[in-house]
Specification:
The complex is a heterodimer. By secondary structure, chain A is mainly alpha-helical. In chain A, 77% of the residues lie in helices and 0% in strands. Chain A is built from 7 helices and no strands. Chain B is built from 3 helices and no strands. Classes of the chains: A mainly alpha, B mainly alpha.
């Protein structure tokens, strides 16, 4: 846990994202119908989901750790990771809707990818509701940790597996190629991979700040 | 510090790709030479740098509070 107090990876995150702001807007991209220049959204829309995924994975890790040790700090880490993840989730959904408006024609066209993303969003909102509905601390931590561990794989299946098995407008579904397969040429990777890593680190950074604030609050409350 | 230097070299190493003039695509290349796309890049970069500085300052304040506790 010492690493969350260090600075180097925060600088790395900023530099990576900063580099993609330039490379993402300037570098050559494949010329594709309908998409046109909006293909550059790939550098900003997808990293939101990767950032969300990173903090959700860390959250599950700390939920498991909490159940193993019963240490309250791990529960705090888990919930703050989910909070940050939901923020990036919203950004991913909103940017996706905007992108969909100009490529699919509607903000929300009931596409399987959109629908299951919405369901998974509610799934994680339910996590927070569940947490806030239990007053007793240990019970709350334990139940929400278990819920979190189950919610994560369901979210992954809903967002990343099920839409790919049906016909969806979203790339990577029902014979519709994902960017990674045909369209993401080597020129795009220069901007895409740093963006994924950079935004993931940004998400983790925000989560650690929230966790540290939460820890101080927790300590203050337990003294009184 | 050494780590940061290596990092900078690593990031700047992709700058030479700028040298490649893009092939004959009729996307927004004209935009880029005369359409002031650099202004947009500068704007979002400023916003992001501002956010980053803000985050760093929050980080620093937190560190101070953590030391007091």
């Amino acid at each position: 846990m010492k690493v969350i107090y260090q600075t180097w990876w925060k600088v790395l995150a900023v530099l990576l994202v900063l580099s993609t702001l330039t490379t993402g807007l300037l570098f050559r991209v494949p010329v594709l119908p309908i998409l046109h220049e909006t293909i550059r959204n790939l550098y900003f829309h997808v990293p939101m989901w990767i950032g969300m995924l990173s903090v959700f994975i860390i959250s599950v890790f700390y939920s498991v750790k909490y159940l193993n040790t019963g240490k309250e700090e791990y529960d705090l880490a888990a919930v703050e990771c989910v909070n940050t993840g939901l923020f990036f989730y919203s950004l991913g959904l909103i940017t996706g809707m905007l992108w969909a408006k100009f490529t699919w024609g509607e903000f929300w066209s009931g596409d399987p990818k959109q629908n299951s993303a919405a369901i998974a969003f509610l799934l994680y909102c339910a996590y927070l509701v569940l947490r806030n509905s239990i007053d007793e601390e240990q019970k709350r931590a334990k139940i929400s940790a278990i819920y979190n561990i189950f919610a994560f794989p369901i979210m992954v299946v809903l967002i990343f597996v099920l839409p790919r098995m049906t016909d969806s407008l979203h790339p990577g579904s029902g014979g519709n190629p994902a960017f990674g397969k045909y369209d993401l040429d080597n020129g795009m990777k220069i901007a895409f991979y740093p963006a994924m890593l950079g935004w993931s680190l940004m998400a983790v950074w925000i989560a650690t700040i929230r966790y540290r604030i939460r820890l101080i609050e927790y300590k203050k409350n337990s003294i009184n | 510090m050494k780590k940061l230097l290596v990092l900078m070299v690593f990031i700047l190493s992709c700058v030479n790709v700028f040298a490649q003039k893009s092939a004959q695509t009729d996307m927004a290349d004209a935009m880029r030479s005369s359409g002031k796309i650099y202004v947009v890049i500068a704007t979002i970069s400023i916003i992001f740098v501002g956010l980053a500085i803000f985050l760093f300052s929050i980080d620093r304040r937190l560190k101070k509070i953590e030391k007091e506790n």
